[in-house]
Design a protein that fits this description.
Blueprint: E1 6-9, H1 19-35, E2 38-41, H2 53-66, H3 89-101, E3 105-108, H4 112-124, H5 140-148, E4 154-157, E5 164-168, E6 172-176, E7 185-187, H6 195-205, E8 210-214, H7 218-231, E9 237-241, E10 244-245, H8 261-266, H9 271-279, H10 294-300, E11 311-312, H11 315-328, H12 331-344, H13 354-364, H14 374-382, H15 400-416, H16 422-436, H17 440-452, H18 460-467, H19 469-487
Parallel strand pairs: 1-2, 8-9, 10-11
Antiparallel strand pairs: 3-4, 4-7, 5-6
């Protein structure tokens, strides 16, 4: 029987969820969902000094925000737990013991100073800096002296002088030469496992069928292949994803934009847009389509369509996806998502103002590119003390006195027009402009500034309809006072 597809996301809780890690999680999640398999979350916290429970919680939060829910993990358990490496010490010690017993690992009593001196000699001679295996050659007497001196040994895997190969779904067959993998450390002096051993053991006992991760892990994979062979375990299928690079084709860094998923959330990106962007960091659908929901991606995703070339992180493309997804949202959904950003920007929306907020937001939906813009775009809807500065009108064709006379007519129109809606307002205002002998735009601009305090807004009459008769009357009154100041000598 074919092994069920099981994939994993294995972050280290020493930092927040990185965009590259989110991309890896997405690819694994889609594989699991398409195959009806399992998506496992495993926390690699063997670095006790740098691991932070708050960072671990942040990783959970970032994945949940993206909608990438896992089937097994530290917080929900599962049949192959525990799912934190710090809780799996016993199984690691068993593997180290088996390798020591078979002679495929050894205690290395070299000191840090000896290893540093060796690297310095190699550097001075222009050689590759790698461990020479000097610890293999110590006699029993050498080891006894070092033990007496208090040297605590690490455990190294004994790499024989032979080529190492594996097949990669993305990169094809890969081989390194007999001198490219040195004797690498698999356990510290205190007996705790290091990355390559812990990952190999975990993937085996958690029955991971496919290891899908970034291409920067290729060098680790050769070591893990050796460990699988030494322990007599079948390796999983490997697939290494392209690196994420900036527009200069260099490694993506903080100066190119936020690296952490939480920062994009704070900036007002939608999770749908982020996922739509992340999928194109290495994958292509084989046609011209760009916009995909998670369900659509689940049906379409194939590892075989992942590119080998580095994936360029272009924030302008992310902005494009965000705008598309904002415009696709139902206005009530958009309003619910935007309200926390409005509050963060200082715009308070009372519970009984949801419909009003949603109506105004619907007018701004086309201009909204990030939810973090909500307060700036919508504050005039909620500013009951708005004092319009009529100097913005610029009065090219009509002086302030003429504009004031026109606005008084507008104020009367606003008081009497019925119903107070977009088409009725527009028809009445155009008729007034014709009666005054003004171009429509010359009348509409002072009205716009009067009722919104701005020159650039959503469509004027739809905006007035949302503001309502009372607000428009009050703001026109204040605008007339401002025009009086503009007319004063």
């Amino acid at each position: 029987m074919t092994q069920p597809l099981r994939v994993r996301m294995a972050p280290s809780p020493t930092g927040d969820l990185h965009v590259g890690g989110a991309r890896t999680a997405l690819f694994n999640y889609l594989m699991a969902r398409r195959a009806g398999g399992s998506f496992v979350l495993r926390v690699e916290d063997t670095d006790a000094l740098r691991s932070d429970p708050a960072k671990e919680a942040g990783i959970y939060d970032g994945l949940r925000w993206l909608g990438l829910h896992w089937d097994e993990g530290p917080d929900i358990g599962g049949p192959y737990g525990p799912y934190r490496q710090s809780e799996r010490g016993e199984v690691y010690r068993e593997a180290v013991g088996a390798l020591l017993d078979s002679g495929q690992a050894y205690y290395d009593y070299t000191t840090a100073e000896e290893r540093a001196a060796e690297r310095e000699r190699q550097r001075a001679q222009g050689q590759t800096q790698r461990y020479s295996g000097m610890g293999r050659r110590f006699s029993a007497a050498d080891i006894a002296r070092r033990q007496a001196a208090g040297v605590v040994p690490a455990v190294r895997f004994r790499s024989e002088s032979r080529s190492v190969s594996f097949h990669d779904v993305v990169l094809g067959s890969i081989t390194v030469g007999p001198d490219d993998v040195d004797d690498f450390v698999i356990a510290r002096g205190d007996g705790s496992a290091l990355y390559n051993l812990a990952v190999t053991v975990d993937d085996h006992y958690m029955r991971i069928s496919h290891v899908v991760r970034g291409r920067d892990h290729v060098s680790n994979t050769f070591r893990q292949v050796l460990l699988y062979q030494a322990l007599g375990w079948p390796p999983p299928v490997f697939a290494h994803l392209p690196l994420v690079v900036d527009l200069r084709r260099q490694k993506f860094s903080k100066r190119d934009g936020a690296q952490w998923v939480g920062a994009y959330r704070t900036q007002g990106y939608l999770p749908e847009a982020m996922l739509n962007f992340l999928i194109f960091l290495g994958w292509a659908p084989g046609d011209e389509r760009e916009i995909f929901s998670v369900d659509e991606l689940t049906a379409e995703f194939r590892l075989e369509r992942v590119n080998r070339a580095d994936a360029v992180f272009d924030v302008q493309r992310l902005d494009y996806f965000n705008g598309v997804w904002i415009r696709r949202l139902d206005v009530d959904d958009l309003a619910a998502r935007a309200r926390p950003y409005a509050a963060r920007g200082g715009l308070t929306v009372a519970p009984d103002q949801h419909e009003y907020f949603a109506a105004g937001l619907a007018l701004e939906q086309e201009r909204l590119s990030h939810l973090s813009q909500t307060a700036d775009l919508m504050d005039f809807f909620f500013d009951d003390a708005l004092q319009p500065d009529m100097r913005q009108v610029r009065f090219r064709r009509h002086d302030p006195a003429a504009a004031a006379a026109a606005l008084r007519r507008v104020a009367e129109l606003v008081r009497t027009v019925d119903p107070f809606d977009d088409p009725t307002l527009e028809a009445a205002m155009r008729a007034l402009a014709a009666e005054l002998g003004w171009k429509a735009g010359d009348l509409f601009m002072p009205v716009r500034v009067a009722v919104t305090g701005r020159r650039a807004t959503p469509p004027l009459f739809a905006t007035m309809a949302v503001l309502g008769r009372q607000r428009c009357q009050e703001r026109l009154r204040r605008a007339l006072a401002s025009l009086a100041e503009c007319s004063a000598p």
